[in-house]
Design goal:
By secondary structure, the protein is an alpha/beta fold. Among the domains are: 110 residues, no CATH class; 146 residues, 3-Layer(aba) Sandwich (Rossmann fold); 97 residues, Alpha Horseshoe (Serine Threonine Protein Phosphatase 5, Tetratricopeptide repeat), CATH 1.25.40. It is built from 26 helices and eight strands. The strands form two sheets. Strands 3, 4, 5, 6, 7 and 8 form a six-stranded mixed beta sheet that branches. Helix 11 runs antiparallel to helix 12. The chain starts with a helix and ends with a helix.
């Protein structure tokens, strides 16, 4: 008997087919269930690896052993006349056919019905909204916002089985979110709150209630080489009713067309189902074709920006990706905006030279002005440069224009609120932040700007409420304890109550500035000086504004004015607070100080 015939007789070939089909079915089940169950991406690869490792052992087992009425025996110990190997083979054939039917049914469902993937991570609803407003009736503006059609774009699930493709599914989600924001006519939940629901399975009604939206856009992405399949569906959060769904099979070259198709069809579906006779928004401009390789580099940069916890590392890595995108496509405005944001963040965090950062920001802002003069990003970049030039009124006007054009942009609302806070227009600031918070209730950036404005008006309870809500989103985030410590110190003079918050502040410069002031106020000059010297050794002129605050509180007016002048010269971003900074109150009435405020437009 030939070797091949012996393989057939011993059911080794049947076992190979059975193992392959059963393994394929198991992988499909894992592909569907692992993500909603919250299992990490490597678990799918582990199952695949175990199946591959097990294959030769199963074949060896089938060759060596045989099932008999008395149980499992070695094949060489069995009398062939009493062997039931043929009956065993028949049973294996039945199992193979059954598994093939299951596999074919799965393929048919995947082909003809859009995938329904569970949305991701939930964040408890108690972190949304302001504690002080809980239980209060909605204002007129809130009622208008609630009446406006609303949508949240949940993170599209990476179905590729490769965590390296996570940047792509996240990037597509963000692009769709930004497209819907720019189309107008919808209240679109901000990125932070939408992405808070990534990685865990949560009922859609809970998500709708947590984000205060009526509709959810969810989907999945399968990327393999230059091919991509995007499945998207629009559902009502209250009952899961499908308003629209579709599947897009494309080459990666068409990714911008896919974004446009999905956003247009979502808008059309919402218009038909919800907007009724309301006037349609103007059609979005035809997207410019971009090189898919440049798109990939940009998305990798944004993914790094969002997921790298170390600020300096995230800036360096993101910058490298954005530069790679621009090397491929020098007119790629998304990557240009990315570079502007990198240098802006470098400037805000005193990483490197202020002058170098500003020079780079001016370069990329000019590129945005040349390529997309009317875009929201150009308006924001121009406004930020106006702030650096101390033209706060111009910056506020530019951001107001951007806010009117793109009322659903959380980033614009937050920037506007921060800018008018510098002008002590806290009513306008808190109104804009209230709108931003309704759009993105889980955004730490929104809470930070809100906390700063409440600190400036002396609302320590409001600052504490913002800190507690921030802790529920991500514990021990920077600035919140600093704002509360300084608020308590300035409004109540309760140094003992303020110090524990300052000591718990995780952001270095904020911790050192607050404690240099509070320890001195307590009478511990040595501890205060140590904090001052630590800040000086680590930040140098990058903390010029903080040194001015410290010396003003220590009662050394001349040194405070010297450091304030240095802060103006090096364009320290902290100077934007000088117009209404209570820590600089000892300088008020000093002619030099008044002239400085006049020169930088904060008088």
């Amino acid at each position: 008997m030939s070797f091949f015939s012996e393989l057939k007789r011993r059911n080794v070939i049947r076992m190979a087919v059975l193992y392959a089909v059963a393994g394929w079915v198991l992988l499909q089940v894992a592909d569907v269930l692992f993500e909603p169950l919250g299992l990490p991406p490597w678990t799918f690869r582990l199952v695949l690896g175990l199946l591959a490792l097990g294959f030769p052992f199963v074949l060896i087992f089938a060759w060596v052993f045989e099932m008999t009425p008395e149980g499992l025996k070695r094949e060489r110990d069995i009398d062939r006349n009493s062997s039931i190997v043929a009956r065993t083979g028949h049973k294996m054939n039945v199992v193979i056919v059954a598994l093939l039917v299951v596999a074919i049914a799965g393929i048919a469902l995947n082909r003809f019905f859009p995938e329904h993937t569970a949305p991701g991570a939930a964040t408890p609803t108690e972190v949304t909204g302001s504690d002080q407003n809980a239980g209060q009736p909605a204002t007129e503006s809130e009622a208008d916002a609630d009446a406006e059609p609303s949508i949240a774009v949940l993170p599209f699930i990476n179905m590729s089985g490769d965590p390296e493709n996570e940047y792509f599914s996240d990037g597509l989600t963000e692009e769709l979110l930004n497209t819907l924001v720019r189309l107008g006519g919808l209240r679109v939940t901000g990125r932070t709150s939408s992405f808070a629901f990534k990685g865990r399975s949560v009922d859609m009604r809970e998500i709708g209630q947590a984000l205060n939206v009526d509709n959810l856009l969810e989907g999945s992405v399968r990327k393999a080489g230059n091919q991509v399949r995007v499945t998207a569906q629009l559902v009502k959060a209250s009952d899961g009713y499908h308003l629209w769904s579709d599947t897009f099979d494309r080459k990666l070259d068409d990714i911008f067309a896919i974004q446009r198709e999905i956003s247009e069809q979502v808008t059309e579906a919402l218009h038909v189902a919800l907007l009724g006779d309301r006037q349609r928004q103007p059609e979005a401009a035809e997207p410019v074709q971009r090189d898919p390789k440049a798109y990939e580099q940009y998305q990798r940069g944004m993914y790094t920006w969002q997921h790298e916890p170390d600020i300096l590392k995230s800036l360096k890595k993101a910058r490298a990706y954005f530069e790679a995108a621009l090397a491929i496509d020098p007119q790629y405005t998304d990557a240009i905006w990315g570079m502007f944001r990198v240098w802006d963040r470098m400037h805000r965090n005193a990483e490197g030279s202020f002058d170098d950062a500003v020079s780079q920001m001016e370069h990329y802002a000019a590129e945005l002005e040349r390529l997309a003069p009317d875009s929201d990003r150009t308006l924001m970049a121009t406004a930020q440069l106006a702030i650096i030039r101390y033209d706060f009124r111009e910056a506020a006007a530019l951001l107001k224009e951007a806010m009117d054009r793109y009322p659903a942009s959380v980033e614009i609302l937050t920037s506007y609120a921060s800018t008018v806070s510098s002008l002590a227009e806290y009513g306008n600031a808190l109104e804009a932040i209230d709108r931003a918070e309704r759009l993105d209730p889980l955004s730490l950036d929104v809470l930070r700007v809100q906390s700063r404005a409440l600190y400036r008006v002396g609302d320590c309870r409001g600052v504490e409420s913002a800190m507690k809500r921030a802790d529920k989103i991500q514990p021990d985030m920077g600035r919140f304890r600093y704002y509360l410590a300084m608020c308590l110190y300035e409004t109540t003079g309760d140094i003992a109550a303020a110090i524990p918050y300052a000591e718990a502040e995780p952001l270095n410069w904020a911790n050192e500035t607050a404690l240099a002031i509070l320890y001195r106020a307590k009478g511990d000059k040595k501890a205060a000086q140590e904090k001052f010297e630590t800040l000086m050794g680590r930040a140098g002129t990058g903390a010029s504004y903080q040194f001015a605050q410290i010396y003003a509180q220590w009662g050394d007016t001349e040194k405070a004015l010297e450091w304030l002048q240095t802060a103006i010269e090096v364009r320290d971003p902290g100077i934007t607070q000088a117009g209404d900074d209570r820590l600089l109150a000892p300088l008020k009435g000093n002619p030099k100080f008044d002239q400085m405020l006049h020169d930088i437009g904060l008088r």
